[in-house]
Predict the 3D structure of the following.
Amino acid sequence: MIDVKGKTFVITGTSSGIGLFLAKELLKKKCNVIGLSRKKTNINNKMFSNLYVDLTSNIEIEKFYKKFKKKFKKIDVLINNAGISVPGNNLKAFEANIKTNLISTFYLNSKLFSHIRSGGKIINISSIASIYGFENNPGYNSSKAALNSLTRSLANDLAKDKIFCNTLSLGYFRTKITEKSFSNSKKNKNRLNQTVLKRWGKMQDILGPVLFLSSSMSNYITGQNINVDGGWSIKGFKF
């Protein structure tokens, strides 16, 4: 039985999608959850705190941190979930992806390192786009590949403080980023055909790996990437 009761989590991007789902599920398990988002997170629970932060702005991160350190001391798990996907083979799109998915993630982390307890965990939510060259989105692909590399670097640097850092690279889940692909029958079918399990991921499929990496059961795992993709990344050709 994986026990995370009483742990304090910080989760970015809790106003919708995966972040909102994880926040609600962790609250059910009697965890304290600090949700970071640009919009109000619709959760009414005494164990939940919602702080505003715009990850596209280093100034806003600074403002957030001043409030955070006054109110909170130590945390157990940091889940970097917030991210964007801006398609296009142009510099503006490329820079937007790198800024939010990589640079801002690192900067926010650097502010919170000292608040993570010994034995604490960092979980970066990445994508199988970090492995594959999906078309018309070099900025997103590159930002997620770099995020996986950042995970390895942080795992190495933070090991002395007994802080563990790992990545979950997600396949196709229905979120705001993938809504167009999900709603397009041809694209939806293409993704089903590429996935060994022949279905899109469900939010519940993310919870298990998150709980495992958040618990003491993963205390000999750091700097690793786990593909949560229904077998997309292992599918070969049919002969």
About this structure: Residues 91-112 form the longest helix (22 residues). The chain has a mean pLDDT of 93. The chain has seven helices and seven strands.
